[in-house]
Amino acid sequence: MLLNIFEWMAVFRYGARFTRLAAAKQDAYLRGWESSPFHLFRFGFASLRNLVLVSFYTQPQSWPMIGYPGPVLETKKT
Questions:
Q1: Angle formed at CA 10 by CA 58 and CA 23, multiple of 5 degrees
Q2: Between the chain's N and C termini, which has fewer beta carbons within 10 Å?
Q3: What burial class does residue 10 get, using C-beta atoms within 10 Å of its C-beta: 0-12 exposed, 13-18 middle, 19+ buried?
Q4: Tell me: the pLDDT tens digits for 27-55?
C-alpha cells in the first residue's frame, strides 16, 4: 500500500507517477517526503529507504562495494 501511495502521490505535485518522472524530479520528490512536516510521510520515506538498503546489502554483487568479503561458512567435520 505504501508503494502505491508513494507512486501515485507524485501525480498531485508533478502531474505524473513517480516512476515516470525525470531523475531530478524523483530526487526532489524523495527529499520532500524525507523532510515533510507530516510525520506519516517522513515515516513512509524511512520505511522505503530501509527496504531499499536491506535489499541492496543482501545482494552479493553489492558486497565488494562495501568491503564485505561475504559470509563465513563453517566446514562440517565428519
A1: 60
A2: C
A3: buried
A4: 999 999 999 999 999 999 999 999 999 99
Is 18 within 8 Å of 10 (Cβ atoms)? yes
Residue in this structure with the C-alpha cell 531523475, named with its chain if needed: 23
Count of beta carbons in the 10 Å neighbourhood of residue 53? 10
Helix (H, G, I), strand (E, B) or coil at 58: coil
Domain boundaries, the chain: 2-61
Alpha carbons 42 and 56: distance in angstroms, whole number: 21
Identify the residue whose cell numbers are 531499499.
52
Cell triple for 73: 561458512
